Amino acid sequence: MARDEFELQDHGEPMVIGSDRGSSVAKDVVNVDEHKRHNSDSSKAPTGVSVDRISNNDPDGYNNVLEDTTHPQYTAKAWTSQRKWMILIAMWFVQVSQNYNAAVFPSMFPFIEEHFNKTSEQANIGQMLFLVLYAFGCELWAPFSEDFGRKWVLFSSLFLVFCWQILLGASPTFTAILVARALGGLSSAGGSVTLGMVADMYEPETQFQAVAFTCFGSVSGSVFAPIISGIVAMTLGGRWVAYMSVILAGLTILIHLFIVPETRAEVLLDRKAKLIRATDAEGPGKDIKGPWEANPLKSRLQPKAIWKMLYRPYVLLITEPIVLFNSLLSGFSDALIFSGLESFGYIMAKWNFNQAQVGYCFASLMIGYIIGWALWSLHYRLNPGRPAKNNNCPEERLWLLCWVVPLEAAGLIGLAFCSLGPKYGVPWIAPLICVGLVGIANYGIYIATIDYLIAAYGPYAASATGGNGFCRDLFAGLAALYTKKAYTTIAVNTPYELVWPTLIFGIIGIALAIPVYVFYFKGEWFRVRSKYAMKLEAERQGH
């Protein structure tokens, strides 16, 4: 569900990282040399303007360019905790809205089948288009937020999605529905921007709780969708499933517009530089520039750099075992949730649940997510030495996942046998408990794999997690193509018709969980043989 992509800082280096729904654009990161700060000369500083005398780059001894490394007091990192959490709560709604749109479409299938005379397989094409293009959409939106700022890039994404959801609800033809879904996925920025804002506001050692909360919003959206849309579809009709997402998107736009400010450091520093020049037009502040004023857009957007930024996630995905196997696990886990949007209906039909009641059952998945979020938050809070310890040994970040990842396979295998139904004495609550176990594991896999890749790849973590996020979205999209066939063509007309597909998923879950333990115990062996991770490992050894 959410794939969530975000920008974090590790070892003093900024990086764009993918995690939520949708994959990230990995940005090639270079070290920024710290300017040595000297004592400021208050007698030369212009009245009412704070300009640090940090270098001798100009005759007056003032640094002409404001940078986030030398003037963090002018960036979002200097904001109060209360202000940051107000923004995080607003961004939680943004994450929920975007992932709600991704997961709401299956509730329209009965309407599409009846109104447009289409099969469920044909309707599933709309789900596949949205999710696959969502992966590419995040890759496309991320660099714009890096070079134009967060607020208006995210606003543009939200507004476009709002428009395409209107088209979805009012579509006169099935083709128009497919177009609306495709453009909706491509227009979704996802975590590529929202989680990047977390890095704008927090230092590496303090950002985990904010990241965990924002990721929780990402996974929550795909759970709210079947719960709400199931009721709407039965009471108001299929078109209102889309219109409810329009209402949610509209409210999200207003929340974002009035609560969420610009957080990108370069934008804030450019604004501060303009203020300094305006208030000290005749003094030493007249030559102060912001980082983007000193480095125009044309010089930042070089075709070669953009191309390198776009292809590196896929290079790491193919050539790096750590990236590949973590991404496969994360992608498979996300695909399970979107398979469940359809397959859970088949299973709960054994207890004669209708569409709305099946939607209510997804509350068990939400409970699993809440437990997973609480586990990782408590683990971080109860281990105050975690940041330093984990920076020295990235594999330590997989410790809790080693205990949690078996819950995915256990939940799937349990769900498989629970799908035998009431004829075999299985109570309806049993499959819900199994789904809750899958939810705990899914959240853990989501946050832990990204956390590990950040630490293992340092300045290349953007590319590493970009491949991770891309797999999550791609696998979720492909799930729309095979789910119904899996549950309607294997062991047909036998008591095990629903058992075998879920059992197969459980066995795959066991196989994909094995690399977690391999990397926990032998991850260093893989890292020292990686040309990307070697540089960061050398820096660790040097310290």
TrEMBL record:
* InterPro entries named in the record: MFS, MFS_dom, MFS_trans_sf
Where is the sequence biased in composition, kind Basic and acidic residues? 1-13, 30-41
Report keywords, A-Z.
Membrane, Transmembrane, Transmembrane helix
Entry's transmembrane regions: 85-105, 125-145, 152-170, 176-198, 210-234, 240-260, 314-337, 357-378, 398-422, 428-448, 460-482, 502-521
Keyword presence, Membrane: yes
Q: Does the keyword Transmembrane apply?
A: yes
Cellular localization per UniProt: Membrane
Q: What topology in the membrane does the UniProt record assign?
A: Multi-pass membrane protein
Q: Enumerate the residue ranges of region (Disordered).
A: 1-64
One cellular component term (GO) for this entry is: plasma membrane
Taking every annotated instance into account, which residue ranges of this chain make up the domain Major facilitator superfamily (MFS) profile?
Answer: 87-543
List the PANTHER family.
MAJOR FACILITATOR SUPERFAMILY, MAJOR FACILITATOR SUPERFAMILY (MFS) PROFILE DOMAIN-CONTAINING PROTEIN-RELATED
Q: What is this protein called?
A: Putative drug/proton antiporter YHK8
Q: Which organism is it from?
A: Pseudocercospora fuligena
